[in-house]
Amino acid sequence: MKRALSILIACLMGGAVLAAELGDDGLHKTPWMRDTFKDLREDLEEANSENKRLVLFIEQQGCIYCKKMHEEVFPQPDLAAFIEENFFVVQLDLHGSTTATDFDGQEDEQRALMRKWGILFTPTLVFLPQEVPEAATAIDAAVAVMPGAFSKGTTLDLFTWVEEKRYELDNGEDFQRYHARRIQERNDVSSD
Question: Start and end of every Thioredoxin-like fold domain (predicted)?
């Protein structure tokens, strides 16, 4: 019901959700991003209490691909509603000097954590499971990582794949096969 209402409101506003604005830190901000203390253990606990999945959005100032995602992909009403309904989104800065605390308890500047995790591209989305082992880092615990900017279809498919926990299924349908099937299904519907 909540998702349907979000989509209806977006459609009444002209068919698209408003594009994100730049925050004081130079990063794009959307209404469904959470402003937290960046303690990932607390963020996961809060996400779980809301029955949502934790996803980390890693971005940087001046990133043309981040801008593209925030202006062209994330404003799509069905995608924005799906993210807001199912995900607890925490934004991290690839070059940020403010601190964050990893699941293993290490507190450091965000840029140091990004180096530790081997993050090279922005945007990068890191999808977390509902339970993370105590000594694990975010990148080690991730169920999926999406480095780069993708179309709405690919982005929605990955969010859906994670939300449905398809990474746990032993049916031979990894994300690429799932995505190919979803593309075919959308093509079949549009050709009817």
Answer: 48-133
User: What is the CA 105 to chain-centroid distance, rounded?
Assistant: 22
pTM for the full predicted model: 0.87
Close Cβ partners of 133 (under 8 Å, ≥ 6 residues apart): 103, 141
Cα separation of 163 and 37, whole Å?
24
In the chain, the number of structural domains is: 1
Summarised one tens digit per residue, pLDDT across range 76-92 is: 999 999 999 999 999 99
In degrees, rounded to 5, the angle at the alpha carbon of residue 116 between the alpha carbons of residues 71 and 91 is: 25
Question: How far, in whole angstroms, is CA 176 from its chain's centroid?
Answer: 18
The enclosing domain of 64 has a CATH number of 3.40.30.10
CA distance 89 to 47: 9
